[in-house]
Amino acid sequence: MADETPGLSPRAWVREQTETILATGTTDGQEVMGKPVVLLTLRGAKSGQLRYTPLMRVEHEGEYAAVASKGGAPEHPLWYYNIRAHPEFTLQDGKVTKTYRARELSGDERAKWWDIAVEAYPPYADYQAKTEREIPVFVLEPIA
Ligand code: F42
């Protein structure tokens, strides 16, 4: 039986923020640039292993967006490939954990969620200006 304990990020600041969420049992109080975060548990596209991935909290009418910004890096974050390969996963917001399904957006739908995302976390606009790639946006819809 494979060990299903999710792995932590190799990046110290991301790992430490994740460990605080796990220790306190809530994402409340965890912020980046004064804005709240949520915690996704994604499955690796190649390894098949579970991995904790904190992202900014972009919520609208019970749905969330996942913005593959990676701080405006030239390449997509690796979690972009994980969420595409395994689009059903859990997301923790506060103390509540639910199952969601991710759908990558384009066109008008992406534009709508991009505006919601920038309102929630204004640095996304700076990240887009920094990189040639179009930053991918997923909508995360709750699974009944
Ligand atoms: N990143 C964002 O892109 N957007 C956000 O809104 C965001 C918010 C945020 C808030 C709090 C916080 O603590 C971190 C936040 N981050 C945000 C950072 C985010 O959590 C990721 O750390 C960051 O986006 C980089 O993603 P990454 O997946 O590239 O991370 C690397 C460093 C990583 O974790 N690598 C691991 C490793 O061991 O090298 C995992 C690699 C992996 O997932 N491999 C896959 C597998 O199968 O296991 C294969 C992937 C493939 O190539 O197909």
Short description:
This protein has 144 residues and is of the alpha+beta class. Helix content is 30%, strand content 32%.
Written description of the protein model:
Strands 1, 2, 3, 4, 5, 6, 7 and 8 form an 8-stranded antiparallel sheet that branches. This protein has 144 residues and is α+β, with helices and mostly antiparallel strands. The chain is built from 4 helices and 8 strands, in the order αβββββαββααβ. The relative contact order is 0.19. The radius of gyration is 14 Å and the shape is globular. The structure holds coenzyme F420. Residues 9-11, 14, 17, 32, 37, 44-47, 49, 51, 53-56, 67-70, 77-79, 81-82 line the site of coenzyme F420 (F42). Coenzyme F420 (F42) binds at residues 9-11, 14, 17, 32, 37, 44-47, 49, 51, 53-56, 67-70, 77-79, 81-82.
Task: Offer a few descriptive terms.
binds coenzyme F420, single chain, 8-stranded antiparallel beta sheet, alpha+beta, 144 residues, 32% strand, 4 helices
Low-pLDDT runs of 5+ residues are none
User: What is the makeup of the main sheet?
Assistant: 8 strands, antiparallel
Spell out which ligands are present: coenzyme F420
- What share of residues are in beta strands? 25-35%
Q: Characterize the overall form.
A: globular
**Cα-atom radius of gyration:** 14 Å
Average pLDDT rating: 97
What is the total tally of β strands?
8
| Helix content percent band | 25-40%
- Quaternary assembly: single chain
Question: How many angstroms separate the termini?
Answer: 28 Å
How many helix segments?
4
H/E element order: HEEEEEHEEHHE
Class from helix and strand fractions: alpha+beta
